[in-house]
Every structure is written in C-alpha cells, then in structure tokens.
Amino acid sequence: MKLFSTTRTVHYDAATKALAQAVGRCPDDADRRKDFRAALAEAERAHRLAAHAERTLEIIVQSALALGDKDRAKAALDRLAAVNPGNPRLAELARALAAATPTMKERPS
C-alpha cells in the first residue's frame, strides 16, 4: 500500500507541475485557468459564427455547468444532439448535466 501512495503522490506532483507550466505558457487560455465565464463567452461567440461547430457546443455545456447555469447547458446539449446525435461526448455531457440537476426527491417542497 505504501508504494501505491508514493506512486500516486509522484504522479500528482508531476501533474501539478505540468499544469503550472501549461498555465505559464498560455496564461490567457480560459480552459486552463478555469475562467468559465470567459470560456462561455468565447464559445458562444464562436458558436454564433459557426453554429454547427461541435466543440464550441461542448465548451458551452461544460462552462455553463461549471457556472451552475443548467438551463443554458441543457440548451447547448440539445443543440449538440441536433447537430450530431453520434457525438462521442454527448453521453458524457448528458451524465454531467443529470448529475448537476436534482431529482424530484432532492428538490425542496
């Protein structure tokens, strides 16, 4: 067990260092900075220019979910499904939306 913990720590440290380097190289990259408002604004702008660009719709879903805007995420997910029902990320994004949406039992009365 000790070896596993040590290995995990080494990988975590390496990942943290790589992330810091990536942010240092591209400090304006909203995806790396977790600046979801900027990512959402840029993705929506890109979507207006190219309505069938699947990646922009994926980013809109992810950013809207990160900001707690489930309605906006759902609308983008629906557009993504209409653009390409076979999109490989569709199921993953739908699960993320479902996880962020309370069930009837969880909703306050």
Structure description:
- The chain is built from six helices and no strands.
- The protein has 109 residues and is mainly alpha-helical.
- The chain has a domain at 25-100: Alpha Horseshoe (Serine Threonine Protein Phosphatase 5, Tetratricopeptide repeat).
Secondary structure topology:
Layout: H1 2-25, H2 30-33, H3 36-49, H4 54-66, H5 70-83, H6 90-100
Tally of separate helices: 6
Q: Structural class of the helices, strands and pairings?
A: mainly alpha
Element order, helices and strands? HHHHHH
The total of beta strands comes to 0
**Taking all residues together, what is the mean pLDDT?**
80
What is the helix content? over 70%
Q: Any low-confidence stretches, pLDDT <50, length ≥5?
A: none
Main pleated sheet = none
CATH domain fold name of the domain at 25-100: Serine Threonine Protein Phosphatase 5, Tetratricopeptide repeat
Quaternary organisation of the protein chains: single chain
What is the CATH C-level name of the domain at 25-100? Mainly Alpha
Q: Label the overall shape.
A: globular
Q: Please, what is the CATH homologous superfamily of the domain at 25-100? A: Tetratricopeptide repeat domain
Q: Report the portion of residues in β strands.
A: under 5%
**Over the alpha carbons, how many angstroms does the gyration radius reach?**
17 Å
The CATH architecture name of the domain at 25-100 reads Alpha Horseshoe
Distance between the termini: 46 Å
